[in-house]
Design brief:
The chain contains five helices and three strands; from the N terminus they run H-H-E-H-H-E-E-H. It is mostly helical and 132 residues long. It has a domain of 92 residues: Arc Repressor Mutant, subunit A, CATH 1.10.10. Strands 1-3-2 form a three-stranded antiparallel beta sheet. Helix 1 packs antiparallel against helix 4 and helix 1 packs across helix 5. The relative contact order is 0.12. Keywords: DNA-binding, Transcription, Transcription regulation. It comes from Roseibium limicola.
């Protein structure tokens, strides 16, 4: 039976994975990650040149990715040079795989190998004489 408490949550891992998913849920952030994969060490100004976004907006996106553990920053003078954080990506991959395995759907035989294409629904009955 479920209760309205936080029982059953794994706070540190669940919260961290949710933070990663929130960070990845914006197309601009995905574009930033792709850019930094191809150009490691880029600063905010370099990234702004490639996106139709204001510098302040790109800075906010970079901060969200950094807070999620997906980016690392090395400060050089007044510029912060960003790189993809491999450890953060590895966490995202492993935690996502674990979570998806945990919630996978199994059929009546206990097998999860079969693709579930539709959920069986009871037939919809119309009153006699009514058009369906």
């Amino acid at each position: 039976m479920c209760s309205a408490t936080t029982e059953g949550l794994v706070p540190s891992e669940d919260e961290r994975l949710a933070t990663v998913y929130r960070a990845l849920a914006h197309p601009a952030r995905l574009a930033i990650l792709r850019r930094l994969r191809s150009e490691p060490g880029a600063c905010c100004g370099d990234i702004v040149k490639c996106l139709p976004l204001a510098q302040s907006t790109v800075s906010q996106h970079l901060q969200a990715l950094k807070d999620a553990g997906l980016l690392m920053c090395q400060v050089k003078g007044r510029c912060c040079h960003y790189r993809v954080n491999e450890a953060g990506l590895q966490f995202a991959r492993a935690a996502s795989a674990d979570f998806l395995d945990e919630i996978r759907i199994v059929d009546a035989t206990g097998s999860s190998d079969k693709a579930i294409t539709a959920v069986e629904q009871p037939p919809v009955c119309c009153p006699e004489g009514a058009d369906p």
